[in-house]
Amino acid sequence: MGLINILVAVATAALPGIAVAAGTAGCGKSQPLSDVYRGLTSSGRIRTYSVHLPDNYTETTPYATVLGFHGSSSIGLFFEADTKLSESRFSANKIMVYPDGVGGAWAGANYSEATVDEDLQFVTDLLADLRGEFCVDDARIYATGMSSGGGFVNTIACSEAVGGAFAAFAPASGSFYTDNAAQHGSCAPARSPLPVLEVHGGADASVHYDGGEGEGGVEPSISDWLGYWAQRNGCDDAGKKVEDSFDGDVHHTTWTCGDTEGALQHWKVDDMGHCWASTEINFSQIAAGELPTHIQASQIIMDFFDQFTKP
Predict the structure, then answer these.
(1) Whole-angstrom Cα distance, residue 311 to residue 308?
(2) 45, 27, 297, 259: which is closest to 137 by C-alpha?
(3) pLDDT in tens, the chain (311 residues)
């Protein structure tokens, strides 16, 4: 047994009432660089991802870990730059991970080069690689993403086999091609409630809030999609709370699901288009012809993740 495992075992025995972070095999491995680019073979393809370690990273401390999935025609490094999620103000005590989709896309859209099974297998293989190389807290693994990346985050959440590794999910401007009216019945979350938060612009001209035909297939309306998750999570839909702010432009809806308050949440910004919500100008806002908006999605999502640990 390695020294790290011995220390954890002793701590657990000495403090039976105290939860000890579940560190992975990568605990104990020194990491001289804070930014690492890694590759692996998954389903016969070479797949890549980047890792950003927090400034306080030590190989003896298990860290919460967040996977961030880019939108279409993009790469993980662009999502990192756009969202600024690697900045310490958002992720000071987290390992940030940015996977790259095949051909700049994630499975689920009609233009995707990889199948859903292939991309889900990549997530499984990536997590195995992460656990073996870095000190990951296995109870605090999360996923976020934008647009088609947000849609793929939902695909992970709907996979009992793969989604069970995560504590919570937070897609933004999500294109939910695999969770529309025709397919939502096949969603099989690993547990209920499964914490989910979504951020969306009411003026999104690419992934319409009211749903319909999108760039890569049929998308549900966001209201319908939230209804699917309210049902899956056993939420009290009648008792949901809606808080309006910024002269009625921002709407934050919170559901209590079973005994878990806030297990389902939604932020809608009425006048926001297809971009990552930020109070500071970012690349996706520039691309969409948008200006900074009222809310900072990066902070909202990290605060949401901090509320949940995988049981």
Answers:
(1) 9
(2) 27
(3) 344 443 333 333 333 433 447 789 999 999 999 999 999 999 999 999 999 999 999 999 999 999 999 999 999 999 999 999 999 999 999 999 999 999 999 999 999 999 999 999 999 999 999 999 999 999 999 999 999 999 999 999 999 999 999 999 999 999 999 999 999 999 999 999 999 999 999 999 999 999 999 999 999 999 999 999 999 999 999 999 999 999 999 999 999 999 999 999 999 999 999 999 999 999 999 999 999 999 999 999 999 999 999 99
- Reading the block at residue 16, the tokens are 């039976």
Task: Write the CB contacts of 196 (distance below 8 Å, at least 6 apart in sequence).
Answer: 154, 157, 168, 169, 170, 171, 229, 233, 263, 264, 265
Distance (Å, whole) CA 92 – CA 28: 20
Find where tokens 């070479």 sit: 46
Structural tokens at position 212: 């319909």
| Whole-angstrom distance, CA of residue 235 vs CA of residue 243 | 18
CA atoms within 13 A on the CB side of 241: 8
**Residue 57 neighbours by CB distance under 10 Å:** 16
Q: Report the run of H or E that residue 99 belongs to, with start and end.
A: strand 94-99
Look at residue 243 and give its three-state secondary structure: strand
3-class DSSP state of 302: helix
Helix/strand/coil for 134: coil
Query: What's the token pair of residue 154?
Result: 């939902």
Q: Is 284 helix (H, G, I), strand (E, B) or coil?
A: helix
